[in-house]
Design goal:
Elements lengths: L1 H6 L3 H27 L5 H41 L15 H24 L4 H5 L5 E9 L11 E8 L5 E9 L6
Helix pairs in contact: 2-3, 3-4
C-alpha cells in the first residue's frame, strides 16, 4: 500500500487517500466519544481509543509527508542543478509512475537536449551525428548548385532538409553545405 502511495498515485489521489484515512481516524475518535457520552462504552475504553486515533492520525501525516515531500524536494533540487548546468548528477525517482516520475522523465529529456546543445557548441561533431540516437529520418528539400546563405566559402552544392522523429514530428530544419572535401 505504501509503495503504491509513494510511486504510483498521482498527487491529487495521494491527498484524497490521506483525507479519507484522517477522516476515518477522526470518525473513530468521535465514535468513541459518543459511545462514552451515551454510556455505551466506559471512559476507560473511549479515551484510549480516541488517543490511539489521534496518534495514528499524527503518524499517518508524518509518513505521508515524508513519502510526498522527499521525492518532490529532491526533484526540485535536481531541477535547479540541471538549470545551473549540471548534466551529470543522477536523476532520482525515474522508477515512479506518479507526478514525480513524470517530472524526472522530463528532466532526463532536458538533460539529454542540453548535452546535445553543449556538444554542438563545443565540438566539431556534425549535427546529424549528435542527434542520430533520436532515430530521425531526413526529408530532403530544395537543392541548389553553389552556396546557400550562411554556407562556407567553397561550397559547391547546398540542400535544405527537415529532420523528423519516428513519430513524424519535425526536430530541425537544416541547410547542408557540401564542399569538394565532403564529396570525396
Amino acid at each position: 500500500m505504501l509503495d503504491w502511495f509513494e510511486k504510483e498515485a498521482m498527487i491529487r489521489e495521494k491527498f484524497r487517500t490521506l483525507l479519507f484515512v484522517i477522516a476515518l481516524l477522526g470518525a473513530l475518535g468521535v465514535l468513541a466519544t459518543v459511545l462514552a457520552a451515551t454510556g455505551a462504552a466506559s471512559g476507560a475504553i473511549a479515551i484510549p481509543v480516541s488517543v490511539a486515533a489521534m496518534v495514528l492520525a499524527m503518524i499517518t501525516i508524518k509518513v505521508a509527508g515524508k513519502l510526498i515531500c522527499d521525492p518532490y524536494v529532491t526533484t526540485v533540487e535536481r531541477m535547479e542543478a540541471l538549470a545551473a548546468g549540471d548534466l551529470h548528477s543522477t536523476v532520482h525517482y525515474a522508477n515512479h509512475h506518479d507526478c514525480v516520475g513524470r517530472m524526472t522523465k522530463a528532466m532526463a529529456k532536458f538533460r539529454y537536449n542540453a548535452d546535445q546543445v553543449r556538444t554542438l557548441q563545443t565540438t566539431q561533431t556534425p549535427f546529424g551525428t549528435v542527434v542520430a540516437p533520436l532515430g530521425f529520418r531526413r526529408e530532403r528539400g530544395a537543392a541548389q548548385r553553389g552556396a546557400a546563405p550562411d554556407c562556407p566559402a567553397g561550397t559547391i552544392l547546398s540542400h535544405s532538409a527537415v529532420l523528423r522523429l519516428p513519430d513524424g514530428r519535425a526536430i530541425s530544419a537544416v541547410v547542408e553545405c557540401y564542399t569538394p572535401a565532403n564529396l570525396r
